[in-house]
């Protein structure tokens, strides 16, 4: 029997596909994994198709060593989608296919059986007296949770909720209180909680989405608390009723456990979760269930967008402006943009939502590519918060807080309400200096200052993770007068505890929540009102609802006003509006105080005075005048090397090659050093390519990259290509 020629995306960083011979006719189809001889060893790859002809001499083709699947893992449509991703993002196809698979499948393991490992109470467990576990409250808690699921609860669900609870489960098993069970993959169903009566705007949005026949992109532009989630829920409910699949992308599941709960409660099904907190086994199982169409609702972060969903009927992207949707290493894809592409391929509607839509998306509405749906009122009768700038140019500050802000905090606390303070800088202080000689603590590996962390009795570099003990004297002049400059959350926390000793402070940042579960615990306590003062970084900006929160203070907004990145102002505005959106509920109007040294900054005033839409249209006008995205398209070629000068030299050669193939309308800028030239001991340079015409830019890129791959210096350093870069780092 004649063997066939297989085209394989080998999981290797090489920008092309490879041909192999199949062992036997009819044994392999596209979408199966194979192990193939590659160089001097073997690699795994995905068969993307069977071909008639090969560019090589057919006699010299190697045979695949092993076929890993009996059934294809991917359908033709998935293969086309991922091939498109590889070509659009100019990334090696094998790596794109690999990153679309969960780790275990990537490594060649077989697809997991579709039984879920789970736990249920034993007879003894049902009779157990909780007092018996009074010395082990966490075990008691888990026992109670398991007890609420008489049919058993899966390990996946338990881990999603309680982190790594395996040791606790094993302890309970040891005591004979619970036993392991195999659950059927159909996720538990519950009686849905009825929805509130939608207001006119919400109902209109749901109707528009449901009426869309086939592909349609909707931008749900609704202020915080306007009930966007209710719109997603109702639209999803209708699609699930037709037994089609719904994909929901959120920026970060750990930060927004309520979203998961709301979907589960309202729709009466447990959403299948796909995020970085899962173990490899859980991931593989979730992926398999989704790709076999066995679950209706997949809720995940960025990478979930690559999961095959054969019955896709609706895609939802919440907080579409969020930077975390952009993958910053490997295949640098935008999950939001891919979500839209997937909806187009599945011919179904996609809803992207935000209280602060990205300028790209607003521009797409203006251009008629997306349909805008507006929610302008807060659900219930809640009023929008009152925002005000506080000029701190020459004001006396206490740990970064002005008198005006401290006064408002006191008033809020006296009324029994909660206040939230936002400062996007963790640690005690961003600078340690010597009063005698002017020395600053610098990271030895980066062009950056070390951040003072009193809690760890040392200095951390936030860019490379380098740590050093707190110096007892100035390393330069041996002087003893070391002083900190500026504030981080650690310092503000200390000050708040001193200033308001009778109130509890919850600090929420990456340092205070290092231990798994701490974040959930702090947020839950805050929701229950246990902490009157909440203080945090970016982590606190995301959709949390605190019922008694009436005051928000933004300690330092100026970082965003003059950044090296042209998107800095847009990001700052989004952050202000998102943080401000935490203040005020139905019967309690909120206040927002924004401290700045540039109280007369026109854009800041526009934002405060006329709101995000006015701000956004001004920004769009500026972008248009400067021919910046979304009015042009960019690609960034980055290179880094531990040897000074290497990265720049490589990019110079690349730029030279690019200019030789000059195409009208495609501009090359640079090379220029990255805003932080040295990081983690590597010198970083970048080259920016820009064009008003996307398809022209892409044709050009393909040719140019082939030329670049031949540049010798390129083999000695790290370089990467970023299509539609979101950060100028
Ligand atoms: P968003 O997602 O826009 O921030 P949510 O959907 O979370 O808004 O709604 C904010 C709050 O208002 C939630 O507590 C939600 O249950 C409530 N809510 C939303 N829509 C309605 C409605 N039509 N009637 C009453 N309450 C509503
Ligand atoms: Zn000194
Ligand atoms: Zn460093």
Would you write up a description of this structure?
With 729 residues, this protein is α/β, with parallel strands linked by helices. It has five domains: 5-106, GIY-YIG endonuclease (3-Layer(aba) Sandwich), CATH 3.40.1440.60; 116-183; 200-375, Rossmann fold (3-Layer(aba) Sandwich); 386-427 and 488-625, P-loop containing nucleotide triphosphate hydrolases (Rossmann fold), CATH 3.40.50.300; 633-723, Alpha-Beta Plaits, CATH 3.30.70.600. The protein is 31% helix and 23% strand. It has 20 helices and 32 strands. A seven-stranded parallel beta sheet has the order 11-12-10-13-14-9-15, sandwiched between helices. A six-stranded parallel beta sheet has the order 16-28-27-19-26-25, with helices on both faces. Helix 17 links the parallel strand 27 (549-554) and strand 28 (591-596). Helix 1 crosses helix 2 (93-100), helix 9 (228-241) packs across helix 10 and helix 17 (568-580) crosses helix 18. The longest helix has 24 residues, at 602-625. The N and C termini lie far apart (56 Å). 46% of the residues are buried. The mean pLDDT is 89. The protein binds adenosine-5'-diphosphate (ADP) and zinc ion (2 copies). Adenosine-5'-diphosphate (ADP) binds at residues 196-199, 202, 222, 224-230, 379-380. One zinc ion (ZN) is lined by residues 443, 445-446, 448, 461, 463-464, 466.
């Amino acid at each position: 029997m004649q063997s066939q020629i297989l085209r394989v995306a080998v999981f290797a960083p090489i920008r092309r596909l490879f041909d192999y011979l199949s062992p036997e006719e009819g044994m392999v189809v596209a979408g199966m994994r194979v192990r193939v001889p590659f160089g001097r060893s073997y690699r795994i790859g995905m068969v993307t198709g069977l071909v008639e002809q090969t560019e090589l001499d057919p006699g010299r083709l190697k045979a695949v060593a092993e076929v890993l699947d009996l059934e294809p893992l991917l359908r033709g449509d998935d293969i086309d989608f991922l091939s498109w991703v590889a070509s659009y993002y100019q990334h090696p196809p094998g790596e794109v296919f690999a990153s679309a698979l969960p780790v275990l499948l990537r490594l060649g393991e077989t697809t997991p059986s579709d039984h879920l490992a789970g736990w249920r109470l034993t007879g003894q467990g049902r009779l157990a007296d909780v007092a018996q576990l009074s010395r082990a409250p966490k075990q008691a808690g888990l026992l109670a949770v398991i007890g609420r699921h008489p049919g058993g609860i899966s390990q996946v669900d338990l881990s999603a909720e309680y982190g790594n609870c395996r040791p606790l489960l094993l302890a309970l098993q040891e005591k004979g209180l619970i036993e392991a069970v195999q659950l059927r993959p159909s996720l538990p169903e519950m009686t849905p909680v009825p929805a509130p009566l939608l207001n006119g705007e919400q109902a209109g949005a749901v109707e528009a989405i449901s009426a869309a026949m086939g592909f349609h992109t909707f931008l749900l532009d609704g202020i915080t608390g306007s009930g966007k989630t209710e719109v997603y829920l109702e639209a999803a409910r209708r699609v699930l009723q037709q037994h089609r699949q719904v994909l929901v992308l959120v920026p970060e599941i750990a930060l927004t456990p309520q979203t998961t709960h709301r979907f589960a409660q309202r729709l009466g099904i447990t959403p299948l979760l796909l995020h970085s907190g899962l173990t490899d086994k859980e991931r593989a199982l979730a992926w398999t269930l989704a790709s076999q169409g066995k679950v209706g609702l997949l809720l995940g972060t960025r990478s979930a967008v690559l999961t095959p969903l054969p019955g896709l009927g609706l895609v939802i992207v919440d907080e579409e402006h969020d930077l975390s949707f952009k993958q910053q290493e490997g295949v640098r894809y935008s999950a939001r943009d891919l979500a839209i592409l997937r909806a187009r391929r599945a011919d179904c509607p996609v809803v992207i939502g935000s209280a602060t839509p990205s300028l790209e998306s607003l521009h797409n509405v203006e251009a008629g590519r997306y349909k805008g749906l507006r929610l302008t009122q807060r659900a219930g009768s809640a009023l929008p918060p009152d925002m005000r700038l506080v000029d701190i140019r020459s004001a006396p500050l206490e740990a970064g807080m002005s008198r005006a802000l401290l006064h408002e905090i006191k008033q809020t606390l006296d009324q029994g309400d909660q206040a939230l303070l936002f400062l996007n800088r963790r640690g005690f202080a961003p600078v340690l200096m010597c009063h005698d000689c002017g020395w600053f603590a610098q990271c030895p590996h980066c062009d950056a200052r070390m951040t003072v962390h009193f809690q760890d009795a040392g200095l951390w570099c936030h860019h490379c993770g380098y740590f050093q003990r707190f110096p007892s004297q100035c390393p330069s002049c041996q002087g003893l007068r070391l002083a900190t400059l500026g504030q981080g959350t650690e310092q503000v926390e200390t000050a708040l505890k001193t200033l308001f000793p009778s109130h509890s402070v919850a600090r929420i940042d990456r340092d205070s929540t290092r231990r798994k579960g701490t974040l959930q615990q702090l947020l839950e306590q805050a929701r229950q009102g246990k902490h009157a003062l909440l203080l945090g970084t970016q982590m606190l900006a995301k959709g949390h609802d605190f019922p008694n929160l009436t005051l928000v203070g933004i300690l330092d907004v100026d970082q965003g006003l003059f950044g090296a990145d042209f998107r800095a102002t847009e990001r700052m505005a989004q952050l202000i509006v998102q943080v401000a959106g935490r203040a005020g509920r139905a019967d309690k109007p909120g206040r927002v105080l924004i401290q700045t040294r540039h109280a007369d900054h026109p854009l800041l005033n526009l934002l405060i005075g006329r709101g995000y839409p006015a701000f956004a249209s001004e920004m769009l006008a500026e972008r248009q005048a400067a021919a910046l995205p979304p009015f042009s398209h960019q690609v960034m070629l980055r290179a880094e090397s531990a040897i000074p000068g290497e990265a720049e030299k490589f990019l110079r050669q690349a730029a030279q090659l690019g200019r030789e193939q000059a195409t009208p309308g495609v501009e090359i800028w640079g090379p220029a050093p990255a805003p932080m030239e040295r990081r983690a001991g590597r010198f970083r340079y970048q080259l920016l390519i820009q064009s008003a015409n996307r398809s022209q830019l892409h044709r050009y890129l393909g040719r140019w990259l082939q030329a670049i791959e031949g540049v010798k210096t390129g083999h000695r350093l790290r370089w990467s290509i970023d299509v539609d870069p979101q950060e100028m780092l």
